Amino acid sequence: MSDLKSALGEAVEAAFAAEGVPADLARVTASDRPDLADFQSNGALAAAKRVGRNPREIATAVAERLKGDARLAAVEIAGPGFLNLKVSDDALSDRANAIAADARAGAERVADPRRVIVDYGGPNVAKPMHVGHLRASIIGESIKRLYRFRGDDVVGDAHFGDWGYQMGLLIGAVMDENPDIAERIAAMKDADPNGPIPAEFERVTLADLDRLYPEAAAKGKADPAYRDRARKLTADLQNHDPGCYLLWRRFRDVTQVALTRDFHALGVDFDWWKGESDVDHLIQPMVAELDAKGLLVDDQGARIVRVSREGDKRELPPLLVVSSEGSAMYGTTDLATILDRKQQFDPELVIYCVDQRQADHFEIVFRAAYLAGYAEEGRLEHIGFGTMNGTDGKPFKTREGGVLKLNDLIEMTRSKARERLHEAGLGENLPEAEFEDIAGKVAVAALKFADLQNFRGTSYVFDLDRFTSFEGKTGPYLLYQAVRVKSLLRKAADEGAEAGRVVVAEPAERDLVLTLDAFETALAEAYDKKAPNALAEHAYRLSQAFSKFYAACPILVAAPPVRASRLTLAAATLKQLELALTLLGIETPERM
Ligand code: ARG
Questions:
Q1: What is the residue range of 486's domain?
Q2: Distance 354 CA to ligand 1 centre (A)
Q3: In testing the pocket of ligand 1, which one of 358, 365, 381, 406 has its CB within 8 Å of the most ligand atoms?
Q4: One domain for residues 413 and 557
Q5: Distance from the CA of 276 to the center of ligand 1, in angstroms?
Q6: pLDDT tens figures, 486-503
Q7: Does an H or E element contain 98, and which?
Q8: In the listed set 265, 286, 304, which residue is the last one of a domain according to the structure?
Q9: d(CA 353, ligand 1 centre) in Å
Q10: % the chain with pLDDT above 70
């Protein structure tokens, strides 16, 4: 059974068609005036314009045709020809019962499932994850879950940054600080790059990389000789020089441990953990092929693909495929990855969930891929997002002015969550391990909901106090509501109160069911626009509608048939709310 909004949409369409006016204009939406109606259609106005008739006259004729529809309690015409539809209590009851019985809580599947890759997270070797990766992880994880839930065949890939210039910078910096490592690298030209990692390399920790990287990056910017050496080392690594390659493997290993921990704490997990380096073997043949297709151009020792098109408003730089040192660049591995994905999975859509500031990079890579025939035009899509800012309106920095590491952010939020739980007197009597688990879930809910409630393109201000509050439009508020329903249902079970058929009667029940019905619209919008905020908004509205229902409609003390109906409504609400939260990447505790 489809949602009421779509079902009524079809009925209005049929009435339009029967009146001989364009049915594609019959669109039904939720009413702007819930005090007057549940749904509305403004289509008569547009239809009148198109066929040169009076809108009110069309609306009247359509209304006449709809009057026999048992699902409608009232059909009225307002103003110049708006149709106002009020749904009958019976239709609402039917819909509520269908949602209650449906494991998907009333959600549909897409008609034509596609193979989709979501490229998100984008962590890098040696750069611990910082708040910049937070949005990529949170938004990407939600989009991945949403697409999968709608029925697509979805792969989430981290696209680990492990093959670029920063590797050369780090190899050089580690060698400078550790003469024994430098010596060893020079002495092992015949070693097996895939053999065991030498003991002195094992001394390098993530903390070392973390400390060395910013210094090396700064030196590389200031000092051309230093930069040239880093470029040379990058090329050596890419040519599988055994020493460089073994040291790089150590970098990868130590980074992955920390990344796995951070992603796990955030409830983010990838189906593929592929790195830029995993397409290394494709690069040479790809370069040869680009050359054969006449796409490669020599440019001062480097090789590029020109991607500008006629009609471009500004000139896009070319894709740098091979640097003058002969190494592969960020765009090179991205292009080869498109090829790899085509061979491995043949995706019909690839969604790149990456900071808006990389928009040009992706435009350039995508155009090159289309030119090379590695993807069909339009199947590669960059979903950009704004930044999380400090109160100064600039991308968030710590008080000391540094970038905040993801792990520190999570710890900070977790400790704030504990504080909040204590303040609210929640979880006091629970075993410590459970309390900790709850604090972790509240923290993740706080961070994720604060992010996802905004349209992804919008930047927002980091405000931990607000994010972690149990009041207002926050993740913790939603968890609290869900847990409240769980405890109500447990109590009902203890008292032996059984759920039964929903019979809608009260205004607050009507509102709740109409809100439950709107799940499908929210999902479709979030899916089509790749905008989980539509789903976040729905979760919030659902909680509010439940709160009003709970205040207005006593449950456990009501007469058995009424109690049974309301228990089913509560259970359906919980199922849908928990589902919506899961799709946002948020887990709900059993109790608080
Ligand atoms: N590692 C990159 C960064 O930190 C993000 C990777 C995004 N994905 C991609 N296919 N380029 O900026």
A1: 406-583
A2: 7
A3: 358
A4: yes
A5: 9
A6: 999 999 999 999 999 999
A7: helix 89-101
A8: 265
A9: 9
A10: 100
Q: Give the number of domains in the chain.
A: 3
Within a 10 A sphere around the Cβ of 195, how many other Cβ atoms?
12
Counting DSSP H helices and E strands in the chain, the numbers are: 21, 13
Ligand 1 centre to CA of 445 (Å) is 25
Is the shortest distance between the CB of 440 and ligand 1 below 6 Å? no
The model carries a pTM of 0.96
* Ligand 1 and 157: CB distance under 6 A: no
Instruction: Give the number of other CB atoms < 10 A from CB of residue 34.
Output: 12
Q: Look at residue 401 and tell me whether its pLDDT is greater than 90.
A: no
Q: Which residue owns the Cα nearest ligand 1 atom 5?
A: 122
Distance (Å) from CA 156 to ligand 1 centroid: 14
- CB 537 near ligand 1, within 6 Å: no
Question: DSSP readout, 289-327?
Answer: HHHHTT-EEEETTEEEE----TT-SSPPPPEEEE-TTS-
Bridge partners of 40?
29, 84
Of the candidates 521, 519, 392, 555, the one whose C-alpha atom is nearest the C-alpha of residue 461 is 392
361 lines ligand 1 (CB under 6 A): no
- Residues 75 and 169 placed together within one structural domain of the fold: no
Residue 110 domain flag:
no
Tell which residue, 20, 22, 23, has the closest CA to residue 9: 23
Q: Is residue 258 part of a domain?
A: yes
CATH number at residue 506: 1.10.730.10
Nearest residue to 156 (alpha-carbon basis) of 350, 409, 2, 329: 350
